[in-house]
Specification:
single chain; two-stranded antiparallel ribbon
Amino acid sequence: MKSFSSKIGVLLPAVFRHMFSPTLTSVAFFGLMCVAALTSTNILIPVGALGTALFSGWFVPKARYQGSRVGSFLYLFVLRWLVPIAIFIIFLDSVNII
């Protein structure tokens, strides 16, 4: 017989998939719409990721990224330039601009 935690591990992905599906935008929970859930997943998570990438790429001291010079240079280049561009593209896609 399966334990309780393994049953929950199987059940939770199905619950989250249906909880944030686009069909729930018209369903109200306790008088509140699911707009807050859609706003947080489509806007706030990419904005938070962009802020984290910009802060850690530009404001964290370079001494934190110890290692080889080529490795730390490549890491900082990707973190400063490529990651924000990729997150911005994901953000534009999530709000249906692209």
